[in-house]
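Render 8-oxo-dGTP diphosphatase in 3D.
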Amino acid sequence: MAETTTRKAPVEVVVGILMKEDGDVLLGQRPDGKPYAGYWEFPGGKVEPGESLFEALRRELIEELGVEILDGEPWCCVEHVYPHAHVRLHFFICRQWRGEPQSLEGQAFAWQGHVAVEPLLPATIPLIEWLNRLRWKTDQV
Ligand SMILES: Nc1nc2c([nH]c(=O)n2[C@H]2C[C@H](O)[C@@H](COP(=O)(O)OP(=O)(O)OP(=O)(O)O)O2)c(=O)[nH]1
């Protein structure tokens, strides 16, 4: 009998990097009850059926932070296999939004220039170095 390999499609996730004019970015701590509770991440979550990536990001940031994003520049895409899930993360840089972030899911959050919060979700760690380079380039303009 022919051997078949079934590979499950990754779970699509959108992630928003809210960036202030001075380059500070917002991170949140994953609430209790989720895998990797206590780890720091950028706000976001899973895309629901029928949603575009931007619609999903807009919804997630309203649900998590009470913030309505007005823009979102697609930045990079990273895949990671965790014990709990295989995820494909779509990162967006958001520079304009309405409202002040609030902790609607009981999570801690922090604006960071040089990102110093720990631990970070494993798939997010390489992003910090890329983000520093992006910030450096923006500083040179
Ligand atoms: N939001 C976010 N998720 C990340 C980052 N890095 C990273 O590996 N992830 C992973 C962790 C999770 O496996 C997945 C996000 O799923 P989630 O469970 O937080 O999504 P959700 O808010 O829709 O959760 P739920 O409704 O199922 O409770 O992406 C990041 O920087 N931000």
